[in-house]
Amino acid sequence: MKARLLLHDLPKAARQPVLRQSSALCFRIKHGRPKVLLVTTRKSRRWIIPKGWLIPGLSPQETALQEAWEEAGVSGRINGARLGQFLHHKHHSDRPPSLCLVDVFPVHVSTVSQEYPEKTERWRKWFSPKKAALKVDSHELAELLRDFKPYSH
């Protein structure tokens, strides 16, 4: 499990309440090589993995699967334990940013749908893990992507 930046390492002035999110590192194997799915954020069109707030009544793993469906139109199964975590600043239009600790779960994709809830709000694209790591802004998420091995967890 990887968590590169520990909360107690932050300067006191930077500390704020930490909220939890769950995310799906969606992957498939194509020609013997892993491909991971990135989606864009709704507003700034930055590349990320599907993620969101924990859903009441669902486990973090089930939340990750739900986010994968809503944001990327994919279904699959969690392939092993949590891969790791990364910190993320969630920006809001009506209040200061929130610091989020995001759990990352590997999702082996079995179905890709052409119709899904956020189709008109996001783009999705498959990348090699190394290319995906170059597309995301988070250094911690990039490291998880670079180190991703689909059958090692």
Automatic annotation (TrEMBL):
SUPFAM superfamilies: Nudix (SSF55811)
Location of the Nudix hydrolase domain: 19-149
Pfam families tied to this protein: NUDIX
Cofactor (UniProt): Mg(2+)
Record key words, sorted: Hydrolase, Magnesium, Metal-binding
Alphabetical list of InterPro entries matching this protein: DDP-like_NUDIX, NUDIX_hydrolase-like_dom_sf, NUDIX_hydrolase_dom
PROSITE patterns per UniProt: NUDIX (PS51462)
Protein name: NUDIX domain-containing protein
Native species: Ruegeria atlantica
